[in-house]
Write a structure and sequence with these properties.
By secondary structure, this protein is α+β, with helices and mostly antiparallel strands. Helix content is 30%, strand content 13%.
Length: 127
């Protein structure tokens, strides 16, 4: 899975959009720390990302907004977000307005990002 981080290098700075109540999020944070990283931990539920930040992360993930939506979240159904006619911007706005809808954890390093589901998925950021 690669070596330890050299935190002196600017492209190794890591941020994790973290939910401290989520087991998968906690395991991902532990994995990062076990690799020598000292990530910036952002509780995205209390410090929600803006629409621009979500759009930026989607670009880094190389994914559309549906990849970052928690489809099993009750609010997803309540807001009828499964409709095919919703635009990218509408889905991003829904996540910015309702951060519970954002899948977690998201790990960001430089111009790349990975969804920590499963936690080992973030290993690509070490390569």
């Amino acid at each position: 899975m690669g070596g330890k981080f050299d935190e002196r290098s600017p492209d190794t700075a890591i941020t994790i959009w973290h939910n401290p109540r989520c087991t998968t999020s906690k395991k991902t944070l532990e994995l990062l720390e076990g690799r020598g990283a000292s990530p910036v931990v952002r509780n995205y539920l209390t410090d929600p990302p803006s629409e621009a930040e979500i759009a930026d992360v989607l670009g880094k993930l190389g994914a559309g907004p549906r990849a970052l939506l928690r489809k099993k979240e009750k609010l997803y159904a309540e807001l009828d977000l499964g409709r095919e006619d919703l635009s990218r911007d509408e889905l991003i706005r829904a996540m910015a307005d309702n951060p519970r809808l954002i899948e977690r954890p998201v790990v960001i390093r430089g111009d790349r990002a990975a969804l920590g589901r499963p936690p080992e998925s973030v290993a690509v950021l070490f390569e």
